[in-house]
Structures are given as C-alpha cells and as structure tokens.
C-alpha cells in the first residue's frame, strides 16, 4: 500500500495534483466530508436515528453562539430536536452512498452499451443511440421524479432499503446515457487503429478485443465523467428528497433537512436549512473541482 502511494506520488498525475492550486483544497474538503460521513457513528456527537435520545423540548434550538443556543448542539437542532451537526454527517453518508452506487451502475450500463454500439455499429448502434436520444429528450430530474414517485406509490409501506433502491434506480436510468455516448465516440475512433486490426487478424474474439484492448483506452473520459457525475447524482438525490420522493422522512438526508428547514426559514430559524445547503455545496463543489483537475491531468495536451 505504501509503495503504491509512493508510485502515485511520483507519477505525472501525482505531480499534477500537488502542483494544482485547486486540487489540494478540493481534495481536503472531499476527504473530510467522506471521513465524517463514513465514520459518522464515531465522529458525530449524537445519533439522529436513535429516537429514544431525542428531546422534543430541544427542537429548533439556534447554534451555540446565538442567544438561546446550547453547547450540546453546536449548529442547532431541527424541528424534531435532532442535532444538525450529527444530521449533516449522517445525511452526507446517505447522499454519498446513493450518489456513488448510482454512478457505478450508470457507468457499468453506459460503458457496456457504448462499447457495443461503437464497436459493432450497424443497426445495433442505431437502435441504442435512438434510445439515448429519447432519454435525452426528457429532463433528467423529471425522469427521476417520475420513477421515484411511481416506486413510492407502488410500495407505500416498503422498507427503507426498497426506497433507497428505487431512488438509486431512478438516478441510474437518467445517468447512463452520457457514458454510452462518450464511450461510443471513443470506441469508434479506437476500433480502426492498428492494434485492433492486428488483434482481429490474429483471431482474437470481438468480445475480448472490446474489453481487453479497446476498453482500457477509453477509460480516461469515463473517469472524468464519473467524477463529475457523482456531484450531479448527489444534487439529484437532494432534489428528490426535497420534493418528498427521495429517502424516507425518518432519514436525515441533506435534501430532507433542507425541505424541513424551508418551512421555518421565514420564522428566523435559518440554521435548519442553511447548514445542509452549505454541506451540499461543499460536497458538489469539491467533487467538481476534482473532476476538472482529473480532466487536465489525464489529458496530455493540457499538461
């Protein structure tokens, strides 16, 4: 592990990272967010999922530095008496898990279909690209809202895991198109190069050529797109939760906290919605900046 880190540090990508003025702070913010979300059970001062520890008399307390605040709740509490700081950590974990899983599934579907369309061409390419055109004609948030709403309507009393599954599927079905079109374009360029022709002459099967020879040469744009898509997926999850069709109301998702705080913001209780919004912005901004850095680092023309 240590040797792998040293090799990465001495590589061109590592040099690009440590000399980039934006990649280091973005990486630090992303690392802190991921660490707090992953180890929320140990880092968070309270457990917002434990209903037995909630005190309704502590509901809607302001941050500790404001009049009426308590040092027990540094960033205040929401309408149910949950600690905002703890809810941010647990909510970030929900957002990151939903975003990461949906991006991985979108990447797997999009890369496989893009490779098939770009390498085989013909009616397969035309059929898959028409499906992509149809998907692109609908706003992604509308498709995700429709799928998530139908899933919640069909399974109104389903467990939380089913609700999370419906949310992940809704984001996945709106995100695979970008990967498919990107990989298709890169595959159409790679399939006519000499190493592919040489593999065909030597009798290598088309499936092996696609995944053994072509795929490694088209992963650069996919990694950049996947990094940026994580931020988009997190924002989509927050939007769906804000609209009431995302994660269950009992889960302190960032979107759920923003929706709850929206009902009290005009009463002066701004902290319920502002802190989750700031957390969402920090996560999305850091991931987008890392995606921009990765795009420049993997592009030899921009080095």
Automatic annotation (TrEMBL):
Record carries keyword Cell membrane: yes
Domain ABC transmembrane type-1: 92-291
InterPro entries: BP-dependent_transpt_permease, MetI-like, MetI-like_sf
Gene source species: Ramlibacter terrae
Top-rank taxon: Bacteria
Keyword set, alphabetical order: Cell membrane, Membrane, Transmembrane, Transmembrane helix, Transport
Subcellular location: Cell membrane
Family per similarity comment: Belongs to the binding-protein-dependent transport system permease family.
Transmembrane segments: 21-44, 94-119, 131-155, 161-179, 218-244, 264-285
One protein family per Pfam: BPD_transp_1
Keyword NADP attached: no
Membrane disposition: Multi-pass membrane protein
Name assigned to this protein: ABC transporter permease
């Amino acid at each position: 592990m240590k040797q792998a880190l040293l090799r990465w540090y001495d590589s061109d990508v590592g040099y690009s990272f440590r000399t980039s003025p934006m990649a280091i702070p973005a990486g630090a913010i992303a690392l802190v967010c991921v660490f707090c979300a992953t180890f929320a059970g140990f880092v968070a001062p309270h457990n917002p999922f434990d209903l037995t520890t909630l005190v309704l008399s502590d509901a809607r307390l302001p941050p500790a530095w404001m009049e009426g605040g308590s040092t027990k709740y540094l960033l205040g509490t929401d309408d149910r008496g949950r600690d905002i700081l703890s809810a941010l950590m647990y909510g970030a974990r929900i957002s990151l898990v939903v975003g990461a899983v949906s991006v991985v599934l979108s990447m797997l579907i999009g890369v496989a279909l893009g490779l098939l369309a770009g390498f085989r061409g013909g009616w397969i390419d035309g059929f898959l690209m028409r499906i992509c055109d149809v998907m692109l004609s609908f706003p992604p948030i509308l498709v995700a809202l429709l799928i998530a709403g139908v899933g919640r309507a069909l399974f109104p009393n389903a467990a939380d895991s089913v609700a999370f599954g419906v949310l992940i599927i809704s984001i996945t079905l709106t995100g695979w198109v970008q990967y498919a079109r990107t990989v298709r374009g890169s595959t159409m360029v790679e399939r006519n190069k000499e190493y592919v022709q040489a593999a065909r002459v030597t009798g290598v099967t088309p499936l092996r050529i696609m995944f053994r020879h072509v795929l490694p040469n088209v992963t650069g744009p996919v990694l950049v797109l996947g990094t940026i898509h994580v931020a988009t997926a997190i924002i989509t999850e927050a939007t769906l939760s804000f609209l009431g069709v995302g994660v269950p109301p009992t889960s302190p998702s960032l979107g759920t906290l923003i929706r709850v705080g929206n009902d009290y913001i005009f009463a002066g209780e701004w902290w319920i919605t502002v802190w989750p919004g700031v957390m969402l912005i920090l996560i999305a901004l850091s991931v987008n900046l890392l995606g921009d850095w990765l795009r420049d680092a993997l592009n030899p023309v921009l080095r």
